[in-house]
Specification:
Two copies of one chain form a homodimer. The N terminus and C terminus of chain A are likely disordered. Chain A has about 160 residues and is of the alpha+beta class. Helices cover about 30% and strands about 20% of the residues of chain A. In chain A, strand 4 and strand 5 form a beta hairpin. Chains A and B meet through helix 4, strand 4 and strand 6 of A and helix 4, strand 4 and strand 6 of B. Strand 6 of chain A pairs antiparallel with strand 6 of chain B, so a sheet runs across the interface. Chain A binds a DNA duplex (30 and 30 nucleotides) through helix 2 and helix 4.
DNA sequence: TCTGATACTTGACTCAGTCCAGAATCGGTG
DNA sequence: CACCGATTCTGGACTGAGTCAAGTATCAGA
């Protein structure tokens, strides 16, 4: 069983990445649930292949991102998230309440913001755009809307009058 | 000594924030060294008023951000950074090598990317843009250029052949 | 099948940030 | 100017994400 499943196997070989059950499972987990954290991915993988160490997850994810097979995004106030949509210049829209993340195509075109007004002499190679707002569910029902409970990302409120 | 220094005192009162030596010092530290981390700010503050607890730093920073007196930015792979430039819609350009961060005015105009192509029903209230690249110093002298040694932010390389 | 290279496991550790309870300070009032 | 309640600061423990290191297991080419 578990013969050369999808194109994942091929894909890894093509990019000079050694093929292991863990990596295959991670690739598949990312594809089936984009914008997941390393932790969530680890859970998914465990559900499939039984077990995997946290280190293997981080290591594999690192290799795959390095080989451009995955893309890593790190929204403020949240753990890093991974997605398999690579190669295109798309951005992200994140709900401040529940953390739901959706892909957004570039508003301006293909390579929008790579042209800063004044580059200060920097060699700019990437423009990262994150839209923040509130998703339909959270706008409608602010109380019970928590589809994705991982790190809701709220504006760090100062603890006011915390002790009684 | 240290009488009502600058407008900081007034500013805090105006925004309903209790004025303390710590907060004044933090405000001043952020102004004099934008894009610093909480830790760096704490050091600066200690140099001025002797000592401050980490909690007080985070708490004050939180209150000030909450009152829109400061702005918090959290670049991928780095601790949160603070700046006193608020109210305008400017973005940031960060060096992948040394972590140097500079302000960038909006390429498109004033409120550039708030208009996503498809908002997926979200109520978008902020567009965060981060340009990544290499600063002049790091492009010229990649070896010794490390003006700001705090969390250089390099692409998380996978540890290849780590054991001998 | 062997074998060297690469990956995975386990466990300790770092770093940024938070929580908590108690002590200190702020600032409006008599 | 002293008082007092509200707010803030201190110190220490704690959490979560991610990394480091050494040893073991697995991959893949000969």
């Amino acid at each position: 069983m578990t013969n050369s499943t999808d194109g994942a196997h091929q894909l890894l070989r093509q990019h000079g990445v050694q093929v292991t059950a863990q990596r295959l499972a991670i690739m598949r987990a990312v594809s089936s649930r984009p914008h997941s954290t390393a932790d969530e991915l680890a859970d998914d993988v465990r559900r499939v292949i039984g077990s995997i160490s946290r280190q293997a997850v981080y290591d594999s994810l690192g290799v795959l991102v390095d080989k451009s097979l995955l893309r890593r995004i790190q929204p403020a106030g949240s753990a890093a998230r991974y997605e398999s949509r690579v190669g295109d210049n798309h951005h992200h829209l994140i709900c401040r309440t529940c953390g739901t993340t959706v892909d957004i195509d570039c508003a301006v075109g293909s390579v929008p913001c790579l042209t800063a007004d004044d580059d200060h002499g920097f060699a700019i190679d990437e423009a990262e755009v994150v839209y923040w707002g509130y998703c339909p569910a959270c706008r409608t029902d602010p109380e019970s809307a928590t589809p994705d409970p991982s790190t809701p990302v709220t504006s760090t409120q100062a603890r006011s009058s915390n002790h009684e």
